[in-house]
């Protein structure tokens, strides 16, 4: 018998889970696997039916209460060590592509025992996993096309010749926007219906973006209908036009809907999320630099009557565009001392902005390294 083929534990037999990975048997305590209940094995031991079990493992023996996985035994030793220590370590001879990560598939067990589980499961995989089938790829392609159409329509609406209802072409744009909104609404409702946990689904950032891109249309429509009905009778509707304009501005969130279909955009969001401390320090350093150089440039330029840097708030604006190396040129120092201060401000801005770039790029690369096995395994499966 090979070393590590059977792992013995001093515990009650009913508290042990029998796992057979590539012919190697493991007896693991149930409490150890439940430390990470959302993982594949953690979900497996929570299933209540054989059908749900077979969705998470390759085979199952009810008589022996043993779960079979056609996987590499060497790889599973690293996985088992993760359950016990909470830290994942892979030895050098193992390739990272041996480890499969499936976010959508990890939630399939939650449909067990729910209403219309098969239909909702199919809807969930079709809407959330573009690599699941040809149908899901078609839905993703149509969704991207509708998002782009909505963005183009919104841009054309901003043109003066299409801004007001003066010709038939504008009504075509309105119809296109209405079709896009209907598609977004139906897609969002189907996602909510198909979600195994609706409350958890609504808390997802991508789904919050979906709501932010849909709700302004309906709220604007309600405000406009109230304005038409009440007219001049209600004084509190006088400023409703400004509210409607703010709500229309929120249509810009539709651009962020591309994050659902773009791994690059998701990687950028995850990178910012994981670099909160670094981004916070960057903002702090820039704020300190702006405050320092704005006061410094003010006292060096205030004696020059022709200088536009006549107050510290104006100097704040100058310091912002200088430290971020934008340099609009609308305000600039005229004295020699002011130009020296401006040079120091620009150099400090370059230094401060470049400090967290390496850290952010490393986090960005780690996101793709973490998701590369998933992408490659999905392509191999199809």
UniProtKB/TrEMBL annotation:
Record-annotated membrane-spanning stretches: 139-160, 172-194, 206-223, 279-299, 311-328, 340-361
Q: What positions does the domain Potassium channel tetramerisation-type BTB occupy?
A: 17-100
Annotated GO MF terms: voltage-gated potassium channel activity
Q: Which UniProt keywords apply?
A: Cell membrane, Ion channel, Ion transport, Membrane, Potassium, Potassium channel, Potassium transport, Transmembrane, Transmembrane helix, Transport, Voltage-gated channel
Transport is among the record's keywords: yes
**Where is the secretion signal located?**
none
Q: Report the subcellular localization.
A: Cell membrane
Domain Ion transport intervals: 141-366
List the membrane topology term(s).
Multi-pass membrane protein
Which GO annotations describe the biological process of this protein?
action potential; protein homooligomerization
- List, alphabetically, the Pfam families matched: BTB_2, Ion_trans
> Per the record, what is one GO cellular component?
voltage-gated potassium channel complex
Name of protein: Potassium voltage-gated channel, delayed-rectifier, subfamily S, member 3b
Protein source organism: Sinocyclocheilus anshuiensis
